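Honest question from a wet-lab person: if I give you the sequences of every part of a complex, can you actually get the arrangement of the whole thing, not just the pieces? Trying it with mine:
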Amino acid sequence: AAGVIQSPRHLIKEKRETATLKCYPIPRHDTVYWYQQGPGQDPQFLISFYEKMQSDKGSIPDRFSAQQFSDYHSELNMSSLELGDSALYFCASSRDHAEKLFFGSGTQLSVL
Amino acid sequence: QKEVEQNSGPLSVPEGAIASLNCTYSDRGSQSFFWYRQYSGKSPELIMFIYSNGDKEDGRFTAQLNKASQYVSLLIRDSQPSDSATYLCAATTGGFKTIFGAGTRLFVKA
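Yes, you can. This is the full assembly:
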C-alpha cells in the first residue's frame, strides 16, 4: 500500500540558510499535517491543510511557511534557519480531518 | 497545562504482564482519540483509535475512553519485548489538528 512520502530524508544546512521539505500524501487523502519533533520530545503540531487550504496553525514560526499544491503534495519552507530548528520533521496525511494520521518517515534537519 | 497529558514514564513491566498507559485531555470538544507507537528515530505508527465511550479491543490492545472524565487509556496484554517503545496519546481538537501528549516510554523486560 502507498504510504506518505517525504523528501529529503536528511538535510544539513547552516544558520541563516533556507530549506524546503516535501511531502506526498497517501492517494485520496485530502488533509496534510506537519509536525516538528525535537530529541526526546513529542511531535509539535505546526500546520495543516485541507483541500489545499490552510486549515489550522500551531506553533509554527513566522520564518516558516507551507502550502499544499493542486496534486495535494505539500512543502514546508523554512528560512533564516536557526540551530534550534534542528529536529525531525514529520508529515502526516489523513482521509479527513479528525481521522487517523499516517506518518511519513520524516526529514531529519540538522542546522550547523 | 498541556492539552494532552501523559505520564512520561518510563514504565517497566515484565514480559507477559499487562502494561497500562494513561492519558488525559483538556478540550471537551475532542471527538477522536488515538494511540501511536513510536520507536526511537522512527515515525509514529497508529495502533488504536477510539471515538466512543467504553472499551475497544484489537488483539492484545484495548483502548478505553471516558469522556466525562476526559480520560483515555491503553492496555497491552501479554507484553513482549518488541512492545518496548514510546506510546503517544493523541486527540483531535475542534479544529483541523491532532494534538499529541509527551508520550510514555514503555520497557518490557524479557
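Two things worth pointing out. The radius of gyration of chain B is 13 Å. The CA atoms of residues 17 and 57 of chain B lie 17 Å apart.
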